[in-house]
Design goal:
Layout: H1 2-8, H2 10-42, H3 46-95, H4 98-101, H5 106-146, H6 150-165, H7 168-197, H8 199-204, H9 208-260, H10 268-300, E1 325-335, E2 338-349, E3 353-357, H11 364-371, E4 379-384, E5 387-388, H12 394-398, E6 401-404, H13 415-420, H14 427-436, H15 440-445, H16 463-476, E7 481-485, H17 493-504, E8 510-515, H18 520-523, E9 528-531
Parallel strand pairs: 3-8, 3-9, 6-7, 7-8
Antiparallel strand pairs: 1-2, 1-4, 4-5
Helix pairs in contact: 2-3, 2-5, 2-10, 3-5, 5-6, 5-7, 5-10, 6-9, 6-10, 7-9, 7-10, 9-10, 14-16
């Protein structure tokens, strides 16, 4: 999967690779030039010494300039790759059904998008580019050694084989550690999120000590897997480092033998050590990075590559608008082993108004979620114009349905953005939605009107204002079917009457409203009131 991303961003990745190859080539050239410089010293030739020293300084200048440019391009490429991974993680979330998405806490998804992406950066992107650079280092150094003596190339080849096969002992273990780290840290982030969400409860009941104990335990759960992964990496790297030192020592002995036997010049001591060391350290780095790939593999396994079109994109199939109505025939549903709906039959005609009333837990909200396609594991039949809704995707159903839940969610942005959700509407359309949701006067009292920021989760405004914004959001997007789950429960009677009357008087709207109870006067305004429970 990692290579797929490199291929997708091949141009940016190729820029980094070319600069890495050039960078290490200049360093190898500097080592060869150092040999010439020391040879001039041993020959007491001042002219050659100054000449080769000047060339060497120019080469090092080019090396550092290339290194700086490579760092900048490298950082930009990492940013692009990280954003591409997050994009695919967002797509993975969109591919999940309503049930699958809610099986995991949002804290775990946040961990995917933060901790996991950073782990991919440290265990995949950076090691990949370092492997390219170190591979270039090894190749340049071997090429330079070829110009000195063939036996040095043979020694480098033997070291290469040794450094390639030894790491395989650690690969599986590091992969297991990486998977464990990913899973445990995601769980810890979920626990910390839960603790912070209940912070006021701990304060209210003077449970500060319990809060600290649980927070410390979650913190340890967050840090321990990372420590265990680091420990396993350190042991593997230590052994590889020792093999590297032994290999370099043997190569240095070979260089000394060649110099004493007169097969190479004395000045080779100055540069050959750097070149043979370059082969050994380059292979050592490649080995460590191979082990990093093993540890990083589990993080990529969460990404699912799908071809499903995003809602609103070209290629998305559209559902035919409802012509007649919705029917439920002998519908039953249960959560696990707990029955919620038992052999329910209902019908909702186009343009008419219906209410579902009954006590908490009788299945009113569940019924709305069935209509939205969020809970497909029901028995019986639910049809729109004689077509079973299982033949539609939830996205297709929601192209003509709007849903106002009991607990309204607002984004931490302006009132306008929460209503329009980024779409373009005329000022007339916005004002109409404000009037029909009884929000027009409220907006006038807000500090910045429609451009007032509502705060995280809408904590900067009242519960009633939140519900009216949700109603305005539903109305302005002109869905033909509106499902309201206690959508006016936080409003005072006057504003609730305004909103409900507006919804009831809209002839183009098919309304299904959930309520714990309705007055007899209000019941009379519905086509039918279904008593549940």
């Amino acid at each position: 999967i990692m290579i797929n991303y490199i291929k997708q961003k091949w141009f940016q990745s190729a820029q980094v690779c070319v600069l890495l190859i050039l960078e290490w080539g200049l360093q190898a050239a500097a080592s060869l030039l150092m040999i010439q410089t020391f040879d001039a010293i041993f020959r007491l030739n001042a002219h050659d010494f100054l000449f080769w020293t000047g060339i060497n300084l120019v080469t090092w200048g080019l090396y550092f300039a290339t290194s700086c440019l490579r760092e900048i391009v490298h950082a930009r490429t990492i940013r692009i790759l990280n954003n591409e991974v997050r994009h695919d993680l967002y797509r993975t979330l969109l591919e999940k059904s309503y049930q699958d998405f809610h099986k995991q806490d949002s804290g775990e998804y946040i961990s995917w998008l933060t901790n996991d992406v950073k782990q991919m950066e440290s265990l995949a992107w950076k090691p990949f580019f370092e492997c390219v650079g170190r591979g270039a280092q090894v190749c340049w150094c071997i090429l330079a050694l070829t110009s000195i003596h063939w036996s040095l190339v043979v020694a480098a080849g033997i070291i290469s084989l040794l450094m390639w096969f030894v790491p395989k002992v650690f690969e599986k273990r590091l992969e297991r550690r990486g998977k464990d780290c990913s899973e445990k840290q995601a769980s810890a982030v979920g626990e910390l999120k839960d603790l912070l969400s209940g912070f006021d409860i701990f304060r209210l009941f003077q449970k500060e000590k319990h809060f600290l104990e649980q927070a410390d335990a979650s913190s340890e759960l967050l840090e321990k897997p990372s420590y265990r992964l680091k420990r396993a990496q350190t042991i593997a790297y230590g052994l590889m480092g020792y093999v590297n030192v032994v290999s370099q020592f043997i190569t240095d002995v070979l260089v000394m033998f060649l110099a004493f036997s007169g097969r190479v010049s004395v000045g080779v001591f100055a540069g050959a050590g750097n070149l043979t060391g370059g082969v050994a350290t380059g292979l050592d780095a490649i080995t460590k990075n191979r082990l990093s790939f093993s540890a990083g593999k589990p993080y990529f396994q969460k990404i699912q590559f799908q071809t499903k079109p995003i809602s609103g994109q070209k290629g998305e199939s559209q559902v035919v608008p409802m012509e007649h109505g919705i029917t439920l025939q002998n519908v039953s549903f249960q959560y696990g082993n707990a029955p919620v709906l038992d052999n329910i039959s209902m019908s909702f005609e186009k343009g008419k108004k219906y209410a579902l009333v009954g006590p908490s837990g009788c299945g009113k909200s569940t019924l709305l979620k069935l209509l939205l396609g969020w809970l497909p594991d029901y028995s019986g039949a639910i049809s729109i114009d004689e077509t079973e809704i299982r033949n539609f995707t939830p996205e297709q159903l929601q192209r003509q349905m709007s849903y106002i839940p009991q607990n309204v969610f607002l984004f931490n942005t302006t009132v306008r953005e929460n209503i329009t959700l980024g779409d373009s509407f005329s000022e007339e359309e916005i004002q109409k939605a404000l009037r029909e949701s009884a929000l027009a006067q409220e907006v006038l009292t807000m500090e910045h009107g429609l451009d007032t920021v509502v705060g995280e989760g809408g904590n900067g405004i009242s519960g009633g204002q939140k519900q009216r914004i949700a109603i305005a959001r539903a109305l302005i997007h002109k869905r033909s079917i509106l499902l309201v789950d206690e959508g006016t429960s936080a409003l005072d009677r006057q504003n609730a009457d305004i909103v409900e009357n507006t919804l009831l008087c809209n002839p183009e709207l098919t309304l299904i409203l959930v309520s714990h109870h309705l007055s007899q006067e209000r019941k009379a305004q519905f086509e039918q009131v279904y008593e549940m429970g």
